[in-house]
């Protein structure tokens, strides 16, 4: 045990790091030896793909918004339409390349059944990207 050289009179507590260094060197040697053994020995040939680069000059497609009121009335980008007109427009829009996104908006009091019906119609007509629009409540 070492004693302090100042006049405090108490024993001096030093940490002996020699055993720690020894353990760390042994672990380092073990990892150096085992690291090459951890490589995969099975060679496989991964499939090749044709990557299509995104064309920045492609025309931007505006999303379509279908609004549903509580009484079931439908609006296509703020234009009132019937269900049959919505189905025919969705079927023609679904054929476009690139296909525009479809945003569904519903009143706070609109039944979820009505929104589900519109969603099913859109999916049956071939729409792939359907989203639901909501607003964040103030104060949250």
What topology emerges from the helices and strands here?
Elements: E1 2-3, E2 11-12, H1 18-34, E3 64-68, E4 74-76, E5 79-81, H2 83-93, E6 102-106, H3 112-124, E7 130-133
Parallel strand pairs: 3-6, 6-7
Antiparallel strand pairs: 1-2, 3-4, 4-5
Describe this structure in words.
- The protein is of the alpha/beta class and 140 residues long.
- It has a domain at 64-133: Nucleotidyltransferase, domain 5, CATH 3.30.420.
- Helix content is 29%, strand content 17%.
- The chain contains 3 helices and 7 strands.
- β6, α3 and β7 (130-133) form a beta-alpha-beta unit.
- The longest helix is centred in the first third of the chain and has 17 residues, at 18-34.
Overall body shape: elongated
Instruction: List low-pLDDT spans.
Output: none
Percent of residues in beta strands: 15-25%
Tally the helices: 3
Using only C-alpha atoms, the radius of gyration works out to 34 Å
CATH class of the domain at 64-133: Alpha Beta
CATH architecture of the domain at 64-133: 2-Layer Sandwich
- Biggest sheet overview: 5 strands, mixed
Q: Major sheet: order of its strands?
A: 5-4-3-6-7
Number of strands: 7
Briefly note the structural class of the backbone: alpha/beta
Percent of residues in helices: 25-40%
CATH topology category name of the domain at 64-133: Nucleotidyltransferase, domain 5
- Order of helical and strand elements: EEHEEEHEHE
